[in-house]
Amino acid sequence: MNQEIREKNRNRAYRTNDDIRIPEVRVIFPEGDQQVMKTSDALREARKLGLDLIEIQPNAQPPVCKIADYGKFLYEIEKKEKRSKEENENICTQRNSVSPKYRQA
Question: What is the mean pLDDT of the chain?
């Protein structure tokens, strides 16, 4: 099960740091603040904090990037997907195990 989630994350391939070539992005800082800024400034800010600039929503206007540790970011996504999948399996199991009892007269 974990292997499937890891494989999905590998295929997802978020753009990070110098791979982001858009002139302006909305940046979400580690504290939760947001600001629209030039990509070069955002990258400088991320490096100053010792973190990565990760593009999380490329289709938004302007695209949304997050300043975070890339490895931790992937781990958190993997954890959420695993929890979601477990909850989904639990719901399916509950539906199958409950059945009405019939009386014969």
Answer: 80
At which residue do the structure tokens 């990565």 appear? 52
Q: Are 61 and 26 in contact (CB under 8 A)?
A: no
The pLDDT tens digits for 4-15 are 545 554 556 788
CA distance 97 to 64: 43
pLDDT exceeds cutoff 90 at 37: yes
CA atoms within 13 A on the CB side of 92: 6
Fold annotation for 2-84: Ubiquitin-like (UB roll) (3.10.20)
The CA distance from 100 to 69, in Å, is 51
C-beta of residue 54 within 8 angstroms of C-beta of residue 35: no
